[in-house]
Amino acid sequence: MKAREFNLDVVLSIATRTLLCPFDDLFGILNFLTGAKLQDFQIGRAADDCIPYLLEQFPWLKEVDVSGVNEENFEQWFAEQTVKYGKTLTLKPAPNGTHKAQDVVTEAIERKGGDLSKITTIVPG
């Protein structure tokens, strides 16, 4: 798969584990990086799997400090980041094995502590 450009706010959201973009934007980048079609509850694990790959490509991501960012200063802070790093970054898909694919149902059960009684199943009739 070819490289693709992603907005800086999306890449920073993954790298810093701080939501700086609309949640739905995470699916595009993480599906691209992992080659998977992720569900909501898989986003965190996929991000964790991809962070080392992003940091390898862009070591400066380690230096991005989001600790003081809030709703009042986000626009100013983000404008400074785009001056430093650009509006987009070009990414390649992560190498095979970066993200360990899991069965969606099994992973959902594990996220609920392995308790099947916490999983609601609806079988259309």
Commentary on this structure:
It is built from five helices and two strands, in the order βααααβα. It is mainly alpha-helical and 125 residues long. It has one domain. A two-stranded antiparallel ribbon has the order 1-2. The chain is globular and about 50 Å long. The N and C termini lie far apart (40 Å).
Helix share bin = 40-55%
Distance between the termini: 40 Å
Molecular shape: globular
Portion of residues in beta strands equals 5-15%
**Poorly predicted tracts of residues:** none
Based on helices, strands and strand pairing, what is the structural class?
A: mainly alpha
Mean pLDDT: 84
Order of helices and strands: EHHHHEH
Q: Give the beta-strand count.
A: 2
Tally of structural domains: 1
The total of helices stands at: 5
Major β-sheet strand ordering: 1-2
- Note the main sheet: 2 strands, antiparallel
What Rg do the Cα atoms give? 17 Å
Précis, in short:
This protein is mainly alpha-helical and 125 residues long. The protein has helices at 8-16, 25-34, 43-57, 74-85, 104-111, and strands at 4-7, 88-91.
